């Protein structure tokens, strides 16, 4: 792995959340259950380990019984310049579906286009790109 992987503990929604991110960003999703890993600190069908590998990579699992699920404050997942404008707009719209737009994806006074959205699973995204030359 060339960079840190954001790895999230979900409150029993890892399968749904990681599936949502696969549908949004594309890529390959691998999921393993608590049962497969021999874990007994949660339901057998809970996700013990999941990884989305693609243009956007994320990892995650269901928090164990009594464990803490993700609560992000002051953290933005940046997708600045990670794809072309059309793809970034499509990602922004998909993340906004069921989420909330903090700052619309639009051209800003400094010339770049960017925006912020918090998706339905509570992740805050910064998406944008520089003007095409």
UniProtKB/TrEMBL annotation:
Domain Glyoxalase/fosfomycin resistance/dioxygenase: 13-125
Gene3D superfamilies in the record: 2,3-Dihydroxybiphenyl 1,2-Dioxygenase, domain 1 (3.10.180.10)
Protein name: VOC family protein
Source organism per UniProt: Arthrobacter bussei
């Amino acid at each position: 792995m060339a960079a840190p992987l954001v790895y999230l503990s979900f409150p029993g929604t890892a399968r749904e959340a990681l599936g949502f991110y696969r549908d949004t960003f594309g890529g390959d999703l691998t999921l393993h259950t608590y049962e497969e890993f021999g874990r007994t600190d949660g339901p057998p069908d809970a996700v013990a380990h999941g990884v989305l590998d693609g243009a956007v990579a994320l990892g995650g699992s269901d928090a164990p019984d009594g464990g803490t699920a993700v609560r992000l404050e002051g953290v933005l997942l940046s997708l600045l310049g990670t794809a072309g404008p059309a793809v970034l707009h499509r990602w922004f719209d998909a993340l906004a579906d069921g989420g909330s737009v903090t700052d619309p994806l639009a051209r800003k006074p400094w010339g770049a286009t960017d925006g912020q959205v918090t998706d339905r699973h509570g992740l805050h995204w910064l998406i944008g790109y520089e003007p095409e030359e």
